[in-house]
């Protein structure tokens, strides 16, 4: 079944929780990026079939935490529960949270970050930092396409 394409640079609010299983990498910021993100994503894609209770193996969730000096970046699948976590992986739940969301592609992520923070500022939304949540990049794998859809979610204070 073909997935509907996302409307590029559409900004909106969304609220939900996420249960995720995956791998992470920690590196210097910003010098370690995007190389570290690509490394953990490629390593995880090779192991994603080990996750038995995934919701969709073609959707990669990449939450991250950054303090401006170091960053930890994850590559995960969304799961129905955390009962079966493969060796060397981590499972966790990000509780229900309101996010500012923007749609983009893997080639327009930088511009999308600029646009979502501008939209948040115009609408007086403030980012929520490291309070039981973190920003998330969601990648939609597709075969034989030049650009894949991506969603960026920034937690906000409500």
TrEMBL record:
<protein>
    <recommendedName>
        <fullName>AraC effector-binding domain-containing protein</fullName>
    </recommendedName>
</protein>
<feature type="domain" description="AraC effector-binding">
    <location>
        <begin position="9"/>
        <end position="157"/>
    </location>
</feature>
<dbReference type="Pfam" id="PF14526">
    <property type="entry name" value="Cass2"/>
</dbReference>
<dbReference type="InterPro" id="IPR029441">
    <property type="entry name" value="Cass2"/>
</dbReference>
<dbReference type="InterPro" id="IPR011256">
    <property type="entry name" value="Reg_factor_effector_dom_sf"/>
</dbReference>
<dbReference type="InterPro" id="IPR010499">
    <property type="entry name" value="AraC_E-bd"/>
</dbReference>
């Amino acid at each position: 079944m073909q997935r509907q394409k996302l409307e590029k640079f559409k900004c909106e609010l969304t609220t939900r929780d996420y249960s995720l299983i995956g791998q992470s990498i920690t590196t210097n910021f910003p010098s370690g990026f995007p190389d570290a993100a690509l490394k953990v994503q490629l390593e995880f894609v090779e192991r994603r079939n080990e996750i038995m209770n995934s919701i969709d193996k073609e959707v990669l969730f990449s939450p991250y935490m950054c303090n401006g000096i170091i960053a930890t970046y994850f590559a995960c699948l969304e799961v129905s529960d955390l009962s079966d976590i493969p060796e060397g992986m981590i499972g966790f739940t990000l509780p229900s949270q309101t996010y500012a969301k923007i749609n983009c592609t893997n080639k327009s992520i930088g511009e999308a970050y600029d646009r979502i923070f501008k939209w948040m500022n115009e609408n007086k939304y403030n980012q929520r930092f490291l309070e039981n949540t973190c920003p998330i990049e969601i990648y939609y794998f597709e075969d034989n396409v030049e650009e894949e859809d991506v969603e960026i979610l920034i937690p906000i204070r409500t």
